[in-house]
Design brief:
The structure is a homodimer.
Chain A: E1 3-7, E2 14-20, H1 24-42, H2 46-63, H3 65-75, H4 79-102, E3 108-111, E4 125-131, E5 135-138, H5 152-160, E6 164-167, H6 173-189, E7 197-200, H7 205-213, E8 219-223, H8 226-237, E9 245-248, E10 254-257, H9 259-278, E11 290-294, H10 297-312, E12 316-317, H11 321-335, E13 340-345, E14 353-354, E15 357-362, H12 363-368, E16 380-386, H13 389-398, E17 402-408, H14 414-427, E18 428-433, E19 472-478, E20 500-502, E21 505-507
Amino acid sequence: MTEFRAVAAATGEPTGPAFAVHGPADVDAVCAAAAAAFDAYRATGREERAAFLEAIATEILGIGDDLIEAAMLESGLPRARLEGERGRTVGQLRLFADVVRKGAWQQLRIDPAMPDRQPLPRPDLRLRMIPVGPVAVFGASNFPLAFSTAGGDTASALAAGCPVVVKGHPAHPKTGELVAAAIARAVAACGLPAGVFGHLVGPSNELGAALVQDPRIAAVGFTGSRNGGLALVRLAQGRDVPIPVYAEMSSINPVLLLPEALKTRSGALGTAFVGSLTMGAGQFCTNPGLVLAIAGEGLDAFLAAAVEAVGAAAAQTMLTGGICKAYQSGVATLEATPGVDKLAEGRAGDAMQGHAALFRTTAEAFLTERAMGHEVFGASSVVVACRDEAELLSVLKGLEGQLTATLHMDAADEALAARLMSVLEMKAGRILANGWPTGVEVCHAMVHGGPFPATSDPRTTSVGSMAIDRFLRPVSYQNLSAALLPPELRDDARGDGAPRLIDGNLTL
Amino acid sequence: MTEFRAVAAATGEPTGPAFAVHGPADVDAVCAAAAAAFDAYRATGREERAAFLEAIATEILGIGDDLIEAAMLESGLPRARLEGERGRTVGQLRLFADVVRKGAWQQLRIDPAMPDRQPLPRPDLRLRMIPVGPVAVFGASNFPLAFSTAGGDTASALAAGCPVVVKGHPAHPKTGELVAAAIARAVAACGLPAGVFGHLVGPSNELGAALVQDPRIAAVGFTGSRNGGLALVRLAQGRDVPIPVYAEMSSINPVLLLPEALKTRSGALGTAFVGSLTMGAGQFCTNPGLVLAIAGEGLDAFLAAAVEAVGAAAAQTMLTGGICKAYQSGVATLEATPGVDKLAEGRAGDAMQGHAALFRTTAEAFLTERAMGHEVFGASSVVVACRDEAELLSVLKGLEGQLTATLHMDAADEALAARLMSVLEMKAGRILANGWPTGVEVCHAMVHGGPFPATSDPRTTSVGSMAIDRFLRPVSYQNLSAALLPPELRDDARGDGAPRLIDGNLTL
């Protein structure tokens, strides 16, 4: 195959222009250009790099409505959602511009020489973080803007000083092409080498595999399925020089309904839960796929409200036919699982649409049928009715790693919540109270990550400013003359405004 | 085998008491205790944890000369070296106590709620780093104190709040037992659960393998051979829940002699080089195993001085008979390599002693015979005489990842050095000028790490205060009440003196 076309999410029919399918020669050329651009790009000053990120944001906004329309057609997501997502994409780029300017990511450290120290003098030692090299980014199907071509992985890698090669998601090639062209315009306008950004598209997995195996690629960012993420991890580990893969893969995002909260507002919780469950057809990494509560009147009232809301929920076009089929298959598996009752399903739609599904089970069944703990990507959720706190804790402790864990609680639940905190911290990257896990704030204190298999590397986040750390490594400079030191580590630089750790003391 | 004894490094004969060989049941018990101790240990306040690290230092000093004598007998290292190493070990523990107190490692971040933000309010988000869980530490043979039972890996993991299980190196069981007992006394004196520190010994690789595969172990620290490190990485990646392995494995630490420096002080450089090469029988991770220079009179004079110094160098007892044999085999391989000339060797010793060896080759031969780029653990070094700068750059670019890269240079070499810097940064974790790579300062700006295969994870260091970051992961707290927040993230805590990033602005 040398060409492929997008598929309209709503109809399953091919649409729009034909795109050339990239192959090994393209991977080689794009990676060679990225490697050639690396030294010049990482030598850019902080202001120059920040301005480049802002220029990308401006260029993306400059595409105008064509971008929204392409994304609507290709993803089936509604206009308001995509306009919001564009705002988030642009906001991420501007956040990283601010982070680059402030410079704390460099982690500048200076331990001055101690020539008179006994028994041995101490040399002058200085440290900074440097970018790792060209980064491969895999666009995600469910965020055609904010976690795709110019999404969080790309923004954080470019902020770190790494050229980026995007393997665009084949579900939205036109959207990807528009954004890639915007980035290329920003590259040119800022006078940077073209290799700072590369873009590869094609429908096969071989393309992505070739990219991860290219020796010039130094790290990988990925958001997608568990199988896809693990495949990339294996490829990266099998290289002559293994590289890190930051794969955000799989999470069922447990929501714990604590007893007092269930007493006072079970109905409102049930309705709000379904709002989070069905948002965007449930196609979020943080979709609440598991609810834990102690059985009783409160849970019954919660379920009554949730059942009503699910029953009223309209079917929604899913991102791709494949995702829709996988969702239906996941729901069918749950239906056939011993000890699981289907409580409600949403209104049926056409062949490209998914409709919500709500299940109930017992702690005993959940702990026996481990497949219930696997993500069903879409608006499906399992409510586990536990007999008591001990059983709830067993279920919690038996869970795999998660992106999020949510507590719905009143003040009177605080003692119970406090007992759960240390378990929740070990299970999830983000713990939230009295909200819903969908809706991931892009800020400094966000962790969108978590223990395996939520991600392949729980030491990091893929959303928020800390994401830049993924693409950096430390280098120490001993007794180098000022001329050889990086400018920000010279005595007269004062860190150019960036914080520095001098002899162990943080200095602003 | 149920018991084993130490072997005196100098004689190869069994010595000292018999030690019980630990097996799977011991691994299980020690890991269970570590897991059980984790919550209580990580809940310790910063002052409490710092005092614990200082108590370990005091207890180690309290062992007195018995420790030095045991280490001398088991490792063959001389008294002065081991007394210095004890000072470093104690210094490391105190450095981490200071780091724990200052609290920057927590990376506290607060993004306050914005209830009135349009179109959506921003929730309150707070972030801190938490310890990953029990850490397995493999004692290194070449640092029986500073990188073994209470060495840098142990100190940094304990500082992070992780219980530690040490797999003691079988080459120094008595030394390890004395230090393990000192740590256990500190654990008890500080009122901590005994499982905060565990100690396993035995001569087989199966013991270490069982430890890395135990599901309660969350990360691994290792210093040793490339084969050993890679074996642990494979085991860790093959677990149901993969875990990070921080393995410091292999480096030949290129030393570049730049032309002007060679002109002005080639003889002094040659003599000083052999001092670094033969220190501790060459048994350092940062031993200078490769010298690069442009051929000419300067290099000839350097070699003449080096040949004289090597010829005068006494044979030295090596750490173990196995290491001694591996060294001799590595030297024999170099002797048999086409295009390699042996220039000098040190004075021969007995069967447990290694003597220095110096080789010369061409850039062409070095680039052809890739095995020349592999570490020979001991006092062996290869000098590559390059025709010109271009050839020197080719050799440099062809190297694998390194712990260090050294420049010997005068002011007039600065332009050439500047051209090399970007390559050196990509090849090594530490770049030093006009010194020798042996002698690793324990401080804040040290990086003892580097690109693969120098380490399995170049994003980190195993020496210096940044080593604590290896055993932490971020957790985000959204809209949690003060009672549920970790104390250091509460509004009234002001970080307890630790720096905080508030809305993106660093606040001391």
